[in-house]
Amino acid sequence: MAGPAALLESLRHQAEALRILQAVWEGREAVATPHLPHSSPQPSQAQTGSTGQPGTAWHSSGGEVEVAGLGWAWEPQEERKAPGKYLEEEGESGDLTPLSPGEPRPQRLSQPRLERPRTLREKALHSKLSRAVDAASRLVTVEQTLLLPLIQQHPFPLHPKDSIEFRNTCSRMALPREGQQFEKDLHEAHQCLKTIIEKLICSLEVLPPESYIPVRSALRQILQNLLAM
């Protein structure tokens, strides 16, 4: 039997996995639907994350999110309008003010890509990633609010190694990998979540039914949403 310490360890790994999943989801959203910010563009400096790969910082409501390997950066507006640089007026087709003699030619900014419709494959990946983020978030909430008080009264079996594997899988998803490798990692993340939830449901069976029915119902709902097509 395991007590609160084992559940807290699992929660720690799951919370880290959830943070990574949310960053991956926000990063892919930023790539799929790039747009000009409403206010003056702020510079996004290329950074190096824990993986050692260069990335681009994207600003969102949850803070700065680093997405590796995108190579996008905004130049500050005050720099773009500095003397001696090309000035491109809004709505024109590319008429530029010439540089003064002897001044070096600055590198032009690449324009943001227009939003394009997602392919069916991209829609499927987006849906699967969204379900994983939602399931991980709900699982952490249920464990904190329902399972933690329950295990303090009635210890039951836990498997923290599954949460460790889930965190490791999400860490691989944050690497700058696309195509089949990303799909494989996302599938493994789904399987890890499925395993964690199913084992929790089975572990609750050792407790008196009246104590675990609400928790089991919540876990089954999370599992159903995760596996929805």
Automatic annotation (TrEMBL):
Q: Which Pfam families match?
A: DLEU7 (PF15760)
InterPro entries linked: DLEU7
Biased composition regions of type Low complexity, renumbered to the chain: 37-47
Q: Which domain of life is it from?
A: Eukaryota
Compositional bias, Basic and acidic residues, is annotated for: 77-88
- Species this chain originates from: Alectura lathami (Australian brush turkey)
| Protein's name in the database | LEU7 protein
Tell me the segments the record calls region Disordered: 33-120
User: What does UniProt list as this organism's lineage?
Assistant: Eukaryota, Metazoa, Chordata, Craniata, Vertebrata
